[in-house]
Amino acid sequence: MKAMVLNGVCNLRELSEPLVMTDRPIPVPGHGQILLKVLACGVCHTELDEIEGRTPPPLFPVVPGHEVVGRIEGRGEEAKRFNLGDRVGVAWIFSACGECVYCKGGEENLCPGFKATGRDVDGGYAEYMVVDEAFAYTIPEIFSNEEAAPLLCAGAVGYRSLRLAELKDGQLLGLTGFGASGHLNLIMAKSLYPHSEVFVFARSARERAFALELGAAWAGDAGQTPPSKPNAIIDTTPVWRPVLAALKNLAPGGRLVINAIRKEESDRALLAQVDYAEHLWMEKEIKSVANVTRRDVEEFLALAAKVPIRPGYQSFPLHDANRALLELKAGGIRGAKVLSVG
Ligand SMILES: [Zn+2]
Ligand SMILES: [Zn+2]
Known about the structure:
Bound molecules: zinc ion
Strand content: 15-25%
Number of helices: 9
Oligomer: single chain
């Protein structure tokens, strides 16, 4: 099979083709596993974090990709949950131990044995992959393969970040960053909190126009002062400047939820400008979002089908994965990027 493989951490400013098209044997599903013929795989900012070493894969080579939609072409021993031919998805959570206090308490996203698809185990930038059937999800009929892929990460993690924001209907929500996660968060928030207004802070005029088109009540640059103070802000940017701006803009008692697996180092020095009175006083809170649980993915897919939430996407062939990643790094994207594989 064909796979786009990452052979080591690298600097994307120096190397424009981090992934290499490689011929590999089709993987064999083990006990309780299913073999998927990959149909589509989303391209996520986390892949940039893996490639550039902010959350490096423990072993190379590895096949990235954790927003995978596939059709079941094989089943290992004892795998009976799905039928051959079923269309299922795989998300960032590839597996968790099932035994620890976090797993038992429904917080498998915090499990010390958490394994991530496409980082700790081969993912979906390939024609085939294997996964435990317990960590696969039926994809609702109404979605095309390309629409479903970004729902599995940007959508599901976005759903978790909204849950952690603990917004009440009618309260004001802010979103900093308006890439794939941001735009899904806006659509989700409008459905879950119909009386809440959403303000969007985004660096490019194109992103701000897209936000207003999707129903944001206000859109401005990250540094701009909004007309009123949000009760919660969800940050989906890779940098620090918007974090400072968000803390300043929060209402008293407000909560900043940082939905990023790692932050880039480029503007970290700004943190020295945190002013207790301006940024933290008045019981402002900061919380990060770590990974997802199966429950997040399942609940979100059901919500997405009901609303429905159809992500805008731009499709690339598998062999163009490097171009998709570089465009993602350059920013200014409208909607999600998806590899059309099968
Ligand atoms: Zn992702
Ligand atoms: Zn565990």
